[in-house]
């Protein structure tokens, strides 16, 4: 039940710190070492390349997964829309492993790719929130996202669980194949800080609602921009906002805007800028100036170390690679309040169903 929450979406956003703590307990031991079945780690370790297939929000979690697997396991990773791969199968390495990310485990587009993988004897691993779902049963192996039932159509806690589980798998795989970054990746601390960070964001939800009312509600369109790991986050943030508020929103790699799309910036166009990447933080500030010069109303979200005085939302410091776990909560709350304060049915946006079982 929704309990005291007006909508499931807000309930599920607020459950995320708990989901992170549960995943830490469920998949890590006392020393923070991943506890994943040897059979699964051996299967991952035998692959020369990982291919992640998913749709929508789960695809966006896959884009973050690519960064995690390449950084902490050193294994080249590709991410594709299941709907495209099903009929235009990508060129494969010698020893591919397919990872399916799916909250529901029933997405038809992903099932088509899995069937093709089975035909070609390609091993597969499904990460899903529904352990007895089709994608879980038909893949070589599966792992549970442990996020608890997700009722709102817009996916929130399944996304954070997918990223958390990808981080655990990246560390487990990296350690198995002797990657130095994997050993040094202190997941236990990082998860604790991410859970606290998500909690802090949730406790600042009134401020996020005010920003949504001032900048998003009056607008028909909006942009999220980011670089590095903030780019896939910008894609997810944009999907969430447009999906539930009907404000047309695009997520952009910040520097790409000036290669064409900046022509859409007008006086008052909301641009939400994500600044978590230390390598590109200064460049982000430059990209922000570019849109301000064209009249954009900019909202900045920055991690503490990279923040400047007038940033709108300052996020507590956590491992760069897990910053999506905290920043996404801000984006989810922007989407939630933009929808709710427009009087929309937050949990059931028009034209959508929770699980997409047609191709
Ligand atoms: C967006 C959303 C969808 C799903 C997509 C995949 O909020 O919920 O984009 O992420 O339909 O669904 P699953 O993860 O069930 O395969």
From TrEMBL:
Keywords: Aminotransferase, Glutamine amidotransferase, Repeat, Transferase. It catalyses: D-fructose 6-phosphate + L-glutamine = D-glucosamine 6-phosphate + L-glutamate. Residues 40-179, 211-349 form the SIS domain. Its EC number is 2.6.1.16. One of its GO terms (molecular function) is glutamine-fructose-6-phosphate transaminase (isomerizing) activity. The keyword Transcription does not apply. It is an enzyme of class 2 (transferase). This is Glutamine--fructose-6-phosphate aminotransferase [isomerizing]. The lineage of its organism: Bacteria, Bacillati, Bacillota, Bacilli, Lactobacillales. The chain holds residues 245 to 603 of 603 of the full protein.
């Amino acid at each position: 039940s929704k309990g005291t929450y007006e909508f499931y979406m807000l309930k599920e956003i607020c459950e995320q710190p708990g989901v992170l703590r549960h995943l830490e307990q469920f998949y890590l031991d006392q020393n923070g070492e991943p506890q994943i079945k040897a059979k699964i780690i051996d299967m991952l370790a035998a692959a020369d390349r990982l291919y992640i297939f998913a749709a929508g929000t789960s695809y966006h979690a896959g884009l973050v997964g690519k960064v995690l697997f390449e950084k902490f396991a050193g294994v080249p990773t590709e991410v594709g829309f299941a709907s495209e791969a099903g009929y235009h199968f990508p060129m494969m390495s010698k020893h591919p492993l397919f990872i399916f990310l799916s909250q529901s485990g029933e997405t038809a587009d992903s099932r088509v790719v899995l069937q093709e993988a089975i035909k070609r004897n390609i091993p597969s691993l499904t990460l899903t929130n529904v352990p007895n779902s089709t994608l879980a049963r038909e893949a070589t192996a599966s792992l549970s996202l442990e996020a608890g039932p997700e009722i709102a159509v817009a996916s929130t806690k399944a996304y954070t669980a997918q990223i958390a589980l990808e981080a655990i798998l990246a560390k487990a795989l990296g350690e198995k194949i002797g990657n130095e970054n994997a050993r040094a990746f202190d997941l236990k601390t990082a998860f604790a800080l991410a859970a606290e960070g998500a909690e802090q964001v949730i406790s600042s939800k009134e401020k996020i609602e005010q920003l949504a009312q001032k900048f998003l509600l009056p607008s028909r369109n909006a942009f999220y921009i980011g670089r590095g790991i903030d780019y896939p986050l910008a894609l997810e943030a944009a999907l969430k906002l447009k999906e539930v508020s009907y404000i047309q929103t695009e997520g952009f790699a910040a520097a790409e805007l000036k290669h064409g799309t900046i022509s859409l910036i007008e006086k008052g166009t909301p641009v939400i800028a994500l600044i978590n990447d230390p390598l590109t933080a200064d460049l982000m500030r430059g990209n922000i100036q570019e849109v301000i010069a064209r009249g954009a109303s900019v909202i900045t979200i920055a991690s503490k170390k990279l923040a400047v005085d007038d940033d709108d939302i300052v996020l507590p410091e956590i491992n760069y690679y897990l910053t999506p776990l905290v920043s996404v909560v801000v984006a989810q709350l922007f989407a939630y309040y933009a929808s709710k304060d427009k009087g929309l049915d937050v949990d059931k946006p028009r034209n959508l169903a929770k699980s997409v079982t047609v191709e």
